[in-house]
Amino acid sequence: xxxLHVATNVNGDAVEFLCEPHDTLLDVLRNQxxxxxxxxxxGSGDCGACSVELDGRLVCSCLVLGAEVGGKSVQTIExxxxxxxxxxxxxxxxxxxxxxxxxxxxxxLVAAKALLDKNPNPTETEVRYWLAGxxxxxxxxxxxxxxxxxxAAEMRGA
Amino acid sequence: xxxxxxxxxxxxxxxxxxCDGDTRVLxxxxxxxxxxxxxxxxxxxxxxxxxxxxxQAISDENGGFRIGAATESATLGxxxxxxxxxxxxxxxxxxxxxxxxxxxxxxxxxxxxxSPAADSVPALLAANAxxxxxxxxxxxxCSVGDIPVSPGKxxxxxxxxxxxxHLPQQKAKSGDAYLRFIPRTEMDIAVASAGVNLTLDDNxxxxxxxxxxxxxxxxxxxxxxxxxxxxxxxxxxPALDExxxxxxAACRPIDDKRGTVEFRTKVAGVLAKRAALIAYIRxxxxx
Lengths: 158, 287
Fold this sequence. Notes:
- The complex is a heterodimer of chains A (158) and B (287).
- Chain A is built from five helices and five strands; from the N terminus they run E-E-H-E-E-E-H-H-H-H.
- Chain A has helices at residues 25-32, 88-95, 105-118, 124-130, 142-155, and strands at residues 4-10, 13-19, 51-54, 57-60, 73-75.
- In chain A, strand 1 and strand 2 form a beta hairpin.
- The longest helix of chain A is centred in the C-terminal third of the chain and has 14 residues, at 105-118.
- Chain B is built from eleven helices and 14 strands.
- Chain B has 287 residues and is of the alpha+beta class.
- Chain B is 33% helix and 25% strand.
């Protein structure tokens, strides 16, 4: 079985890799590209810990094959901060202590950013439903939701 | 396992026909990849259809819509005309999975995975949707209802792929709706579901209807008797009660960890009634 050669763009950088046909984007990000921000919480698209954006769409990287991202653009948690400057969502999660073990956090942040890019003024209900695919075993979600709403307000200049 | 990404339908059909072993078509991958990881399937060949022209497009077609087989669900709700004409179909597919799953999942995949509890299928069947199929012997169309034959199995023969779902033009004074019962708020599989599509005359009397039930039989059920119960009525209480009773009587569910036969049977009847009322309001009826 020969490996597939894939040329893609990750967080704005042109990237090439070799992968097996059955390797997922999550496998590739973590094992080939050293981008271990995305986590494998379930491997079945249920927990959202592997969330990335693919051509601007929020997806689970465990449900995308490495082979499928040729010519596309992938945005991971590693691309969220600008140099040393955290994204407001990242800062607010810290400010609100909205994480404990941190495993869900990269996925939560990528998902929340995708929400605010699409809807800068979501209601609490909209935030909760949007993040339904991001499971957290530690926090009980409350602080996460408050942090996201707070970040949204700050980003709106409110 | 081989991965191929053909750029034409003919290439895809040839790849699938020529492979002696097990094959899978890859659109969104939200069922195929899960099954692959679980070891439930071991295909020799995966054919990615997303790079074929028209596979990820929604286009107007004779007043209705052609939805390419690889169109991701998130695009459906973003399509204003489709959402306005067929809100029941759109809301049904939008219930599948999470935001992340919606970014990849497709209605065609949902149909071809042939789960008895598939969310898009009752709504599509109520809408009288058709599918276009391409195979080694040429092209054909059939009703969405003809695709699932039993849990996990479709009527597609070797080398055949669905290329598009076709929704007819929604008639004037018509509305459709889909409801399902799940124990959680999100991210669950339907325990019972109902899709209703109906048309009213100028006096708010139902002139046509289609009622489909999901998760209460090996495949989706089109319950023509239930539709007849509300045709000629303004969906008054007696008509709705009859609809409900007929739907419950049509159910052939199983007991499993998600629900009992008794629960599913009862809830399917309730959901059919509620979906019919939503469709009625959407059609311009007043209650």
